[in-house]
């Protein structure tokens, strides 16, 4: 008989509703049920969490690094393991290590590392996000322009082959450097295509969506803005209902008023969800690091190149959720969904992630009233305790 664990004493947010005086029952790494405390089987192993809250583990689809490691600089299984462990400290139970635009050799190494991490079942590893190299020079942000280029047939083939060994594969590209036929081929192979780092107009973005693009990367950042006669990429993200869009909620990448306006304007069923875009300093006291040979400086919650260009973010997912609640004024429940359920839906993993209901993976964070993470569990096993 599979052992049964019961987490007791905590309020439980299942992704839709709060449960009081209940226990979270875990069996075989999955959620068996949320049951009234009086109905917990006598044979269950009890784990008390009195006075705390259980919430679905956070899902982060854009994670460049953490724990002192950047995927571009350590494209191997141990690098991925370190990144996942660093983010687990902040409640993230599933993430996509993200490769920023780099050489073909580094891209190939990162894909091989992702395949190996999937085979090794590294806790927290969900798949890969390839952010580039098929982006727009005009909206390159911190990406090295020396590596930005059009998608070639071998790039398409490499990406499609990689998807076969991964649970999830996300690719950010710009319509300027990838054809709609290539987007359609990626979508047919199960790759989630996200539009980003692009200066294209609404019509080109809409055509890419019609071909199969499903997402926008870090809404507002590194994309053509919303204008009165040209809606741009921002307008497309808000108007095209089936698009999901990631958002960096750190107070530096997007103004709170813009966040609020976007949330009110977004047409469904697509959602705006949270990403950290975190770099290697997360969870460390590092003051600088290198990407593609360029030094990036950490100061006052910001990461920048020497010229002041933002280069990723210095924030964790729990902090993003606090920002949405405390600064943007969102209900905690919706902020939690933006950090768990909505990204799981965007990547096609809502059947496993983002909820604490029967059959879902037993991935959850234990938080206090300040949304500080007390412990993190992946697959029914504690991986971090404060």
TrEMBL record:
The keyword Hydrolase applies. Keywords: Carbohydrate metabolism, Hydrolase, Metal-binding. One of its GO terms (molecular function) is N-acetylglucosamine-6-phosphate deacetylase activity. Belongs to the metallo-dependent hydrolases superfamily. NagA family. NCBIfam families: nagA. This is N-acetylglucosamine-6-phosphate deacetylase. Its EC number is 3.5.1.25. It holds the Pfam family Amidohydro_1. The keyword Hydrolase applies. It comes from the Bacteria. It comes from Shinella sedimenti. PANTHER family: N-ACETYLGLUCOSAMINE-6-PHOSPHATE DEACETYLASE. InterPro entries: Amidohydro-rel, GlcNAc_6-P_deAcase, Metal-dep_hydrolase_composite, Metal_Hydrolase. Residues 54-383 form the Amidohydrolase-related domain. Gene3D superfamilies: Metal-dependent hydrolases, Urease, subunit C, domain 1. It is an enzyme of class 3 (hydrolase).
């Amino acid at each position: 008989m599979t052992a049964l664990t019961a987490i007791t004493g905590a309020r439980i947010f299942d992704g839709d509703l709060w449960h009081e005086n209940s226990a979270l029952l875990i069996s075989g790494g999955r959620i068996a049920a949320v049951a009234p405390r009086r109905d917990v089987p006598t044979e269950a192993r009890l784990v008390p969490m009195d006075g705390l809250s259980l919430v679905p583990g956070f899902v982060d689809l854009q994670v460049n690094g953490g724990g002192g490691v950047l995927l571009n600089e350590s494209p191997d299984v141990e690098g991925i393991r370190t990144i996942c462990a660093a983010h687990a400290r902040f409640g993230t139970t599933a993430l996509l290590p993200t490769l920023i635009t780099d050489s073909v050799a580094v891209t190939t190494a990162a894909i091989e590392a992702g395949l190996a991490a999937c085979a090794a079942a590294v806790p927290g590893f969900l798949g890969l996000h390839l952010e580039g190299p098929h982006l727009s020079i005009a909206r390159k942000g911190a990406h090295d322009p020396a590596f930005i280029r059009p998608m070639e047939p071998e790039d398409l083939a490499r990406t499609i082959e990689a998807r076969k060994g991964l649970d999830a594969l996300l690719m950010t590209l710009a319509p300027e450097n990838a054809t709609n036929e290539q987007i359609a081929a990626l979508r047919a192979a199960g790759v989630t295509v996200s539009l980003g780092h692009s200066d294209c107009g609404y019509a080109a973005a809409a055509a890419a969506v019609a071909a199969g693009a499903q997402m926008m990367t870090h809404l507002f950042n590194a994309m053509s803005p919303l204008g009165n006669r040209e809606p741009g990429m921002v307008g497309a993200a808000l108007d095209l209902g089936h698009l999901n869009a990631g958002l960096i909620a750190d107070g530096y990448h997007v103004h709170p008023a813009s966040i609020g306006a976007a949330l009110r304007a977004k047409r469904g069923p697509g959602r705006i969800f949270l990403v950290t875009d975190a770099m290697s300093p997360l969870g460390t006291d590092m003051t600088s690091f290198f990407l593609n040979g360029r030094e990036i400086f950490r100061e006052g919650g910001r990461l920048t190149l020497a010229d002041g260009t933002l280069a990723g973010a210095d924030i964790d997912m729990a902090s993003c959720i606090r920002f949405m609640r405390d600064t943007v004024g969102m209900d905690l429940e919706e902020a939690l969904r933006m950090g768990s359920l909505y990204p799981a839906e965007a990547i096609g993993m809502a059947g496993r992630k983002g909820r604490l209901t029967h059959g879902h993976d037993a991935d959850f964070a234990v938080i206090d009233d300040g949304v500080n993470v007390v412990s993190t569990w992946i697959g029914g096993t504690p991986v971090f305790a404060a």
